[in-house]
Write a structure and sequence with these properties.
The complex is a heterodimer of chains A (221) and B (273). Chain A is mainly alpha-helical and 221 residues long. Chain A folds into 3 domains: 1-61, no CATH class; 63-119, no CATH class; 123-221, no CATH class. Chain A has helices at residues 2-17, 25-59, 66-74, 86-115, 127-146, 155-194, 200-220. Chain A is extended. Chain B is α/β, with parallel strands linked by helices and 273 residues long. Chain B has 2 domains: 3-30 and 241-263; 40-233, Rossmann fold. Chain B is 49% helix and 12% strand. A 6-stranded parallel β-sheet of chain B has the order 3-2-1-4-5-6, sandwiched between helices. In chain B, strand 1, helix 4 (69-85) and strand 2 form a beta-alpha-beta unit. In chain B, helix 1 packs across helix 11 (235-263) and helix 4 packs parallel to helix 10. The chains are: A mainly alpha (221), B alpha/beta (273). At the A-B interface, helix 2, helix 4 and helix 6 of A face helix 2, helix 4, helix 6, helix 8 and helix 9 of B.
């Protein structure tokens, strides 16, 4: 059974990779399979979750849950032109709750918590720590000032804005480099899988199919 | 222009694909065993979890789907393996739909050392609502009454030890997106060790610097370092071998690309399609 599973997974992986060669039916099939299975799983989890957080508690007498249920159902009025305005009530409830949760914690955590790291006790910090503090302070302040548009970016303000821009470019570059490194792991993970028995033989089959297609196309032209 | 340069210039896409595939496949057939050393953050995490006592409660949040497994999964495997080795009591939760399935995959890939469901670990399943769900759970974990399989949580021994979020010794969220929502809702309530995508490294570092996060593990790279500390080399170490080779080859390609660019006559540069 494991052998069949491995072969199926290996074949599906190669079908997805076949796009590197050219657009083909194998790739279209795997694309449809992925969307189909994804939607199926999503539906299963949604029904399961509704059962756990709504149906079962309501059946046990927790009738207060009728309020969020109505709010959720109102979203579907978007399909009826006459009652479309009611969908906004449901959307407003969802957005309002989300904002309430996020904003109430944003000030203490994202602003005050982050400002804390600008405090430094020079008596207890080594040279490297001071250098770090200096870099963080300069890059943070210059980046914030870069987004100040009420004054023209000329003279001293221009220099500050330029330092801010460079700071952001370094940060974006570091993020992009890490992203490339991270994305490689997707290919490597599949490569490690395909190099194992029995799916390793699928590589030969795939190579033969590609060669056959190249020759077939060459003969046609 | 030399013929070989011209060949590279005309077929650069194919050359890049082939070189990357060689870099990815070669270590799978013949491991190179490139040396890895544990970073300060990984060591800090390991020492922190190593200091826990048997039976301590920990909360692990699996918030990634199968599409992101290769980027973060091996790191999660290594850390959760450590939790089972320490015989801690683990509560798994998810705020993304794919999370529970990934939790089951995780448990099938590591040595749980005979841990019993409901006694040593439990899967709460998917909590909807995104940040609202996180906030509600952080305020009162007891809002959840059923596990992923629809069973009453009160029947499980592990759940009897949970009264509030502070009962957990550590919160370990594992995800590949920006960290703000998790930090907003859980910071200050319990120590947070975040397992993240290497791409989010620069986004997470400020939170570690400010002390709002205890530490972080950067995905598969961190997983390889963690495996080294555990003394159990696994999938993360294998992936890092190929990553090192492929990134080295990529750097060589960048150098060659620049040489080819310089070799071309002015005005003959093709547009990248």
């Amino acid at each position: 059974m494991d052998m069949i599973t491995s072969l199926i997974v290996g074949a599906l992986t190669l079908m997805a990779w076949s796009m590197l060669y050219r657009e083909n039916k194998f790739y279209s099939l795997i694309e449809s399979l992925l969307i189909g299975f994804g939607m199926g799983y999503l539906l299963y989890v949604t029904i399961n979750t509704l059962n756990n957080v709504l149906v079962t508690p309501m059946a046990a007498g927790k009738w207060i849950l009728i309020i969020p249920t109505i709010g959720g159902l109102l979203l579907f009025t978007v399909f009826i032109e006459r009652f479309r305005f009611l969908a906004r009530w449901g959307a407003a409830a969802i957005t309002g709750t989300g904002l309430g949760f996020a904003v109430s914690r944003a000030v203490p955590v994202q602003i005050l918590g982050q400002v804390n790291q600008f405090y430094i006790d020079f008596g207890k910090t080594d040279a490297l720590g001071v250098a770090n503090w200096l870099i963080i302070s300069v890059t943070a302040i210059t980046t914030i000032l870069y987004f100040t548009f009420t004054r023209p970016h000329k003279g001293a303000m221009g220099t500050i804005a330029k330092i801010g821009r460079w700071s952001m470019m370094i940060a974006f570059g570091a993020t992009f480099g890490s992203t490339i490194g991270g994305d490689l792991t997707y290919v490597i993970d599949r490569s490690l899988f395909l190099s194992q028995y029995p799916q390793v033989y699928l590589l030969i089959v795939a190579a033969i199919i590609v060669l056959w297609d190249i020759m077939r196309r060459r003969n046609q032209t | 222009m030399n013929m070989s340069w011209k060949f590279l210039s005309d077929n650069y896409r194919q050359v890049i694909f082939i070189v990357v595939l060689i870099g990815c496949f070669l270590p799978a057939f013949r491991p190179f065993g490139f040396p890895i050393s544990a970073s300060a953050q990984t060591e800090k995490t390991y020492d922190f979890l190593q200091g826990f006592n048997k039976g301590d409660l920990v909360l692990v949040d699996i918030d990634y789907g199968p599409n992101a497994w290769a980027e973060i999964g091996p790191g999660v495997n290594a850390v959760v393996q450590h939790l089972f080795l320490k015989e801690l009591k683990i509560v798994f939760v998810s705020f993304v739909v794919d999370g529970p399935a990934m939790t089951e995959k995780l448990l099938s890939e590591i040595d749980t050392r005979g841990a019993k469901y409901g006694v040593d670990y439990v899967i709460l399943g998917y909590i909807p609502g995104d940040e609202v769900g996180m906030g509600s759970f952080a305020q009162n974990p007891l809002v959840i009454t059923k596990d992923y399989y629809g069973n009453d949580l009160n029947q499980y021994d592990i759940w009897k030890g949970v009264k509030m979020i502070a009962d957990f010794k550590v919160f370990i969220p594992c995800h590949i997106t920006g960290p703000e929502a998790w930090i907003r809702q859980f910071s200050g309530k319990l120590p947070i060790v975040m397992i993240i995508s290497p791409a989010a490294l620069s986004l997470v570092q400020p939170w570690v610097n400010s002390g709002q996060l205890y530490s972080m593990i950067p995905g598969t790279k961190g997983g390889a370092e963690y495996e080294l500390l555990l003394g159990k080399l696994g999938i993360a170490s294998s992936i890092m071998d190929a990553t090192t080779l492929t990134l080295t080859l990529t750097m060589v390609l960048i150098i060659i690309g620049n040489i080819v660019y310089r070799q071309e006559k002015p005005g003959s540069v093709k547009k990248v399609t």
